[in-house]
Each structure stands twice: as C-alpha cells, then as structure tokens.
Amino acid sequence: MSNHLRQIESFVALFDILGFKDLVRKSEISKVATTYEKMKADFAKYAGMISRVSHSKVVTRCFSDTFLLYTTEASDASFRALFMACQFLYLAALASRIYLRGAITCGGLTVSEDIEIGPAIVEAYECEQQQDWMGCWITESCITAVSDMNRYLEEKSIVRYPIPLKSGVVEEKYTFNWIYLFVVLDSSLSGQPGDRKDRIAAFGRSMSKWDSSTWESKRKLENTRHFLKVITSPQFVDRYDFERSRRANL
User: How far is CA 216 from the centre of its chain?
Assistant: First the structure.
C-alpha cells in the first residue's frame, strides 16, 4: 500500500440532492450554481466550527450533487461531531430550498489527501439509493458502534421509523430526525425563541413547491410529509421542550 494511503475506521455520511437533474434541466445553470455555492459556503462555516468545538475532525467532500462526510476515527466524540455536521448540512440545504436524502454508516475506509474508498462508503451509497423520501437512514453498523446511542434516542434526534423504500417495502430503521435542530436550538439559531412552529410551517409551505409532476416525486413528497407530521406530533414536541429546558439549565 502506498505510504500516502491510510486505513481507518470511520463514521461515514453520504447525501444526494433530490431532483438535482431536473433542477439543472429546468433552471438556469447560473441560478442553480449560485444556490448550490451558497449552501456549501453556509455548511463550510458550520463544519469548521464543529471541528474546533468537538476536537474531532470531520472531512467533507462535495462533488456534483453528492456530499460525503467522514470522521478520522470511530469514537463517540467523532460520531457526535459528524452528527452535528449532518444537522447543519440539512439546515444549510433547507435554507436554500435544497432537499437531501442520505445514509450514515460505520466501517473501514482507505484514505489519502484526495482519495476515499471503502465498504462504509458503499454501504452508505446503497442505503441512500434505496430510500423514497427526503430522509437519512442510520445503519445498524453505526448504531452499534456508538456506546452512548441511548442519548440520541432519548432526546429523539435519532428515531425508529418505518423508512419508505423504492421497492415499495417499508422497513422500520433508525433515521436522522432533521427537524430536531429547528425545535431544540431555535433560539440560538434564530435569535427569537418560540418561533419554531412558524419555521416548521414555512418549511411545509416550501415543500409544496417541489416539482410533483411525476408519480415518483409525488410519492417522495407524501412520504416526507408523513415523517414531518410524525416528528412534530405532541409526543415529540413535549420531548423537544424538555430537552431545550435541560440544555438551558446546563
């Protein structure tokens, strides 16, 4: 093996932009590029902050409509850093009305300055491609590798949910609750506490602007709306309120 290549155990997240081909075909390229660059710039700002605060490096790669994020080790701290990065990636994407579908895995990688290959990326890609919604599947390989996973499940930033697949099958898996950042950290993000319902409603309205001219996109839209309805239900909101109060008193 080349001296420049290293073998590591890593948490890996891979995301694709939903409807990217149609977006490019139906919009002016310059408009797409400007929106895309703004999203990447917003996320880069968050990613740098996460690495400094967590002391765990998260490597990010962007090519065409794909975002690849991975850690340089597979520790609880590195997962926490990656998870924060995924939250802020979704935040930056939604701010630009860009919708993501992805997967988070754990496994071996071979890496260098400009090369990343390995089964963890393959698993993330295969899981991402199977899904039929805007969401993120967190695989069993990832769940079992994190010793403090109960923390994420209790606060409901990770939830068990029947993920809709393109095959028509619905399988209950672990999934990333991308609305969690809006409702728990709303005051620090917006500067105006208590406005999460308005921002969730605004997101719901933006979803109505998705191109649903085909049956495939209509199905993705409805699957995503159902998930949004579940994770903003009273039992979830009560837990979010508890988490927000707990964090404020830390």
Answer: 21
Find how far residue 212's CA is from the centre of its chain: 22
Structural fold of domain 6-178? Alpha-Beta Plaits (3.30.70)
Q: Which residues pair with 159 in a beta bridge?
A: 175
Cα distance between residue 153 and residue 173, in whole Å: 12
Nearest Cα neighbor of 101 from 232, 201, 196, 217 is 217
Residue ranges with strand state E in 53-164: 58-63, 66-71, 100-111, 116-117, 136-138, 158-164
Q: What is the C-alpha to C-alpha distance for residues 82 and 11, in angstroms, rounded to an integer?
A: 7
- Predicted TM-score (pTM) of the model is 0.85
**Residue 28's pLDDT is what?**
62
Residue pair 158/152 in contact by the 8 Å Cβ criterion: yes
Q: What is the pLDDT of residues 24-65, one digit of tens each?
A: 777 667 766 777 787 777 777 776 777 676 667 888 888 878
| Predicted pLDDT at 187 | 42
